[in-house]
Amino acid sequence: MRYFKLILLLIFFSFLSSFDNSPKATLEIDIYNLESNDGNVRVHLYSSDVKESFPNHPENAFKLKVVKINNRTAKAIFEDIPFGSYAYSIHHDANLNIKMDKNLLGLPSEGWGLSNDVLPVLKLPKFEACSISVNKTYVVSKVKVRN
Fold first, then answer.
1. pTM of the predicted model, to two decimals?
2. Residues 68, 40 contacting (CB under 8 angstroms)
3. Would you call 8 exposed, middle or buried from its count of C-beta atoms within 10 A (0-12, 13-18, 19+)?
4. Residue 24 belongs to what H/E stretch?
5. What's the structural domain count of the chain?
């Protein structure tokens, strides 16, 4: 009987912990100035929890969306994300090889972009320079692809 009560208590508390009442949002990212309709666009969304990974470690991104291109534009929609600070990087994967291709100097040879349309000067920007605030239920951000 004691084990039965313990199991019921565990089930009850695990059920309660599954309710997350924190506010959620939808982030729409409008991507324009793509060089062609070839391939797709990979959008890596980084939360402030993984800001040290931005933008060099896409494998650590909070979320990833791969979206189709239409008329040299694309749209990525991230739903049910908690309110907070985010930054994103995008790359036009024209040849569908899932990686950012680079030239002999190590510079991107495929289209790319960063949130807030930040342009790196001598090095890649930090999370804080590119961060956007998601503090309402629907947020739209636009990014121009650099080719």
1. 0.85
2. yes
3. exposed
4. strand 24-32
5. 1
